Amino acid sequence: MIRKTRYIIFIFLALIAIIVILCFVRLSPNKDPNEVQYVIGMSQANLTEPWRISMNQDIVNEAKKHKNINVVYRDAGGDTEKQKKDIDELLASGVDLLIVSMNDSEKLTPEVSKAYKSIPVIVLDRAVQGYDYSLYIGPDNESIGRQVGKYIADLIGNGKGKILEVQGLLNSHPVVERSKGLRDVISNYSNIEISRTIIGEWQRDESEDKVKEILQQDKDINIIFAHNDYMAYGAYKAVHDLGLNNIKIIGIDGLVGENGGLDLVSKGMMQGTFTCPTGGKEAIDYALDILNKKTDIPKKIILRSDKITASNVNGYLNNKLKKTEEHKKIVLGYAQLKSESKWREVNAKSIKDAAEKAGVDLVFLEEGSTQEDEKRMIRELIKRKVDVISFSPYVKSGWDDVLKEAKAANIPVIISDRNVDSDDSLWINNIGSDFYEEGRRAARLLVDLFKDKKKVNILELKGNEGAAPTIDRTDGFVEIIKDYNNYNIIDSYYGNFEYNDGKNIVKNYIKKNPNKVNVIYAQNDDMALGAIDAIKELGLIPGKDIIVVGTDGTKEALVAIKNGEMYGTVECNPLLGVQLIRTAIQVVDGYEVPLRIVNSEDIFTKGVTNKQIFEREY
Ligand code: AHR
């Protein structure tokens, strides 16, 4: 009996032990690397447009590669109110990150802001207003419209062009932007007119019916441009039914699969299409980076659009279907400007650190600071046959020759930091800041400060002549202050982004024009700090007698703000290394890379804390 009881107690204790062990195993996190760690909510505007189906599919395909994420999908069916509810439900269910592609970006902006207060949000395709999101990924619709316009002009040549434009939904963002781009170009050609514009609601049948009706009335139409390939396909059916084989049809999207844009071009049913990548793959890649708390996440990613015609469709399709899983060891050649500022020092370090971490061989040349010096360095990199070239262009214009040489040598070029005005067929990607927006932000800081003052005299310290940040920051700044009668840029000087230049300009100017300047707007913090020292040396008090606003957001500038000597600074993020190296590797591995990657940036003014200064990386 005692033996039996002991036996029962033993079994009972063993069972308890097993249960405890099982519970422990279940509760301890990350035991299984394949276990779902993150749930991502994906709120889609509708799933009636093939492009949106393709976006979801891109997300599915990319998410499949990562066992630790689960994506929960919601389809709003084209109903904005339903999409609001979808987002609320996803939030209530506790998703870790939201991806949203909006039906109506204006009406959904507050919903997205609300979500962003609690979790990271990636906005796809249509941008929200303001900055309440983690990352925006989408196409440049205006540029797509311009590319379409140029293509039509090439097709028409000296003949007469009569275009039927088939738009998606009336006044929707992509429609407005694409139409603007198209019209900007077409308005330069007196032999081409947009004779009719109709609404195809992004749908094939709607387009087919309306196009048929119009073609029966107007026999001179010789180009149909549809804002997506699905409507272009409808237009093709109408054209085909009426036996009008002289009409050329152009679309947008370039999807793969039967009757996708690429298929229609390769079958000769469409003259050409312009790709509009969905961003689904990138959304998952960056969602993981955000969830894994990686640093240097950009704020905006603009995707590249390629022109696809009969001449390149097969090559494009082959590339698209090619699966590259192997990673080649790469050599990146970088031509850097001589360090004119703190920004550049940090920028160079960020590139070197990221290359080392990723195991990329970096040939880093820093031999001069003129455009000719840079061209010499780039030619040297071409000679050395590096896999990818990157450089920070001293000025915006005049790069075509050397970019063409790199292209001829089959070396892709990533434009880093500043941008160029060369055609984007000559470079593969541009990583950097939105300098125009930085100028606007600096002006907004000031207009808030001097609301009631009758006259505000601004002395502007520009960077080097012809540089993208110089041109764009001035333009952005002026765009904002021109609406305020009391603001006046009394003088502008090139301070070349250097401390000494900033200091000398300000000292001489104030000596010659005492009591004239109220504000100094410096296009970088080095010049702003130079200006502050000049003001002090002249016996004046910076922050009281003269207000100084800088650009870059360096640690030294933050200290000056804390001390009350600088009013504020607009961040220009130099930490481009991680994104640059990632892009260079992707290019060599054969992936499509975004056209433009824009940094995430902040504004610093009163209220800067010691903690912020202490934690500042540069
Ligand atoms: O191109 C970035 C600009 O160049 C920075 O704002 C400035 O400090 C730098 O030298």
Automatic annotation (TrEMBL):
Residues 40-294, 340-590 form the Periplasmic binding protein domain. The keyword Ribosomal protein does not apply. It is found in: Cell envelope. It comes from the Bacteria. GO terms for cellular component: cell envelope. Keywords: Membrane, Signal, Transmembrane, Transmembrane helix. One of its GO terms (molecular function) is carbohydrate binding. InterPro entries: Peripla_BP_I, SBP_2_dom. The keyword Membrane applies. Pfam families: Peripla_BP_4. The chain crosses the membrane at residues 7-27. Belongs to the bacterial solute-binding protein 2 family. This is LacI family transcriptional regulator. The lineage of its organism: Bacteria, Bacillati, Bacillota, Clostridia, Eubacteriales.
